Amino acid sequence: MFEKSTWIRLPRNVVVGHGVRDEVLDVVDDLHLQGRPLFITSPTPREVAADPIAADFEAAGIDPAIVTIEKATFDAVERVIEAAEAEEVSYLVGIGGGKAIDIAKLASHHLDMGFLSVPTAASHDGIVSNRGSVPDGDSRHSVAAEPPLAVVADTGILAEAPWDLTTAGCADIISNYTAVMDWRLAQRLQDVEYSEYAAALSEMTAEILVDNADLIRPGLEESAWVVTKALMSSGVAMSIAGSSRPASGAEHLFSHQLDRLAPEAALHGHQVGVGSIMTAYLHQGENGIWRDIRDALSSIDAPTTAAELGIDDETIIESLTTCHEIRDRYTILGNGMNERAARDVATKTGVID
C-alpha cells in the first residue's frame, strides 16, 4: 500500500531583474498583505535598499518599522521578535545579505508570520530556502523555517554588491555537486530519504554555473541574473526535499568546522567551495570532477587553496579530520578521516602545499 506524502512550501512570487526594488509594494499588494511591516536590514543594505523601499511604503500611507542589525545571532532574532510584537506588525521584510534574511526567516517562523526576502547580495541560497543559518558561539546552526512568501531580487543592486559576496554565492552553488553525491551515498548506505527531482534540480543548478563561469564577471547585471537564478533553484531544491541535503554535504560540515577553528577567516561560500574540491576527489578520485570544480572557482576569482582562504594548512587538516562530529549526517567522510588521509587529499587537490 502506497502511503508516501509530501508538503512542499515555496515562495508564491519570485521577482528578479533590473529595477525591481521599486516593485516591493506591488508584490505586497499582490499577496494581499495588510497592516504594518517590519523591515529587518543591516547598515549598508539599509542605505541602498531598505530606506528607498520604506519611502515607497510611506508614500502609500504605510509606516514600516525598521530594525537594523549588525550581526546574525540568536539575540538578534529575539530583538526582531520583540520589535515585531511591540510594533504590532503584520509581516516581515528581510532586506540585505544572508544575515538579515536569515534573521527575518527565523523570526517569522517563531511569530508564525509571513516574510518577504529582498536580497542585496547574491551570497548564498538562503534567500529563497526554508532553512535559516545563525552562528551560536563557536558553531553555526541550520534551522528549519518557512520559505519567504516572495523574493524580490534587483539585479542592479546585486551587481553592485562586493564581488567577493557574489563569488561566495557561486561557490555555494557549485558545491551542490558534492552535496548531492553525499546524499546519494547516504541513501544507498543508510537508507536516507532521497528525492530524485530535488537532486536533479540541485545538480543542474551547479552545472549551469560551472558551464557559465567564464561569463560571470564583476559589475555585470547579466552575471547577477545568472547567479541569482541559480541561488533560487538551489533554495527551491531544498524546499522540495524538505531538508538541506540537496545543497549541504561534507563540504558544509568542513566549512562549519572552519567557523569554529578560524572564526570569520573566510566567507561561508568560499569555504564550502574549497571543501567541495576535496570531497569531490574523495568521491571520484584523480579523474573525477574535482578539477572542473576547482577551475570554475578559479575562473570567478573564488579561493581554491587554504592560503587564498587565509587559513593555515594545519587548520584545514584539523577541520577535515573532525568535521564529521558536527552533526548526524552521513557523508563521504563516514566516521572520520585520519590525519594522513586528510593531508593526502588536501595535497593532491592543491588545497595545501
UniProtKB/TrEMBL annotation:
Gene3D superfamilies: 3.40.50.1970, Dehydroquinate synthase-like - alpha domain (1.20.1090.10). Pfam families: Fe-ADH_2. Zn(2+) binds at residues 172, 252, 268. It is found in: Cytoplasm. Substrate binds at residues 125, 172, 256. NAD(+) binds at residues 98-102, 120-123, 129. It catalyses: sn-glycerol 1-phosphate + NADP(+) = dihydroxyacetone phosphate + NADPH + H(+); sn-glycerol 1-phosphate + NAD(+) = dihydroxyacetone phosphate + NADH + H(+). Its cofactor is Zn(2+). Its main location: cytoplasm. Pathway: Membrane lipid metabolism; glycerophospholipid metabolism. One of its GO terms (cellular component) is cytoplasm. Its EC number is 1.1.1.261. Glycerol binds at residues 125, 172, 252, 268. GO terms for molecular function: glycerol-1-phosphate dehydrogenase (NAD+) activity; glycerol-1-phosphate dehydrogenase (NADP+) activity; metal ion binding. One of its GO terms (biological process) is phospholipid biosynthetic process. Binds 1 zinc ion per subunit. Keywords: Cytoplasm, Lipid biosynthesis, Lipid metabolism, Metal-binding, NAD, NADP, Oxidoreductase, Phospholipid biosynthesis, Phospholipid metabolism, Zinc. PANTHER family: GLYCEROL DEHYDROGENASE (PTHR43616), GLYCEROL DEHYDROGENASE 1 (PTHR43616:SF5). Catalyzes the NAD(P)H-dependent reduction of dihydroxyacetonephosphate (DHAP or glycerone phosphate) to glycerol 1-phosphate (G1P). The G1P thus generated is used as the glycerophosphate backbone of phospholipids in the cellular membranes of Archaea. NCBIfam families: PRK00843.1. Belongs to the glycerol-1-phosphate dehydrogenase family. This is Glycerol-1-phosphate dehydrogenase [NAD(P)+]. It comes from Natrinema versiforme JCM 10478. The gene is egsA.
